[in-house]
Backbone:
């Protein structure tokens, strides 16, 4: 299955008063990493992908992380993102964060949902079937 890796340099604004990454910042990094993975798979920006497949978004249903080693201001971390499973409308994402030298910093997990506009009320979202073409793009890697 397709993966995406990206290097992130920890910025001052990512850190708490102790100088280590404030944990909610990782979830922002994970959100961006998920979008970049879909862009890599489809060759489309998120907005173009949603337009092409009549999607409304990639709703976050659950997020969690297992922290191992803290990261601090100035550290370079690598985030590797992969989809571990697709279901009809939901999918599971794993983010593995390693520090320079290869130490595992943390592993993050997301459960997400492919959403579409409700035809009866376009202001509302509902789950939709994940487009087969997108799933195939991930399998081709």
Residues:
């Amino acid at each position: 299955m397709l993966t995406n890796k990206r290097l992130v340099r920890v910025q001052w604004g990512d850190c708490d008063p102790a100088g280590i990454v404030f944990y909610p910042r990782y979830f922002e990094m994970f959100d961006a990493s998920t979008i970049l993975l879909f862009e890599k798979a489809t060759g489309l920006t998120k907005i173009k992908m949603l337009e092409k497949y009549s999607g409304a978004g990639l709703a976050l249903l659950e997020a969690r992380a297992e922290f191992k080693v803290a990261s601090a201001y100035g550290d370079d971390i690598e985030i590797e993102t992969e989809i571990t499973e697709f279901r009809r409308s939901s999918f599971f994402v794993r983010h593995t964060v390693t520090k320079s030298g290869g130490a595992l910093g943390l592993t993050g997990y997301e459960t997400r949902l492919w959403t579409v506009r409700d035809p009866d009320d376009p202001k509302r979202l509902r789950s939709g079937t994940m487009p087969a073409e997108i799933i195939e793009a991930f399998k081709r890697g």
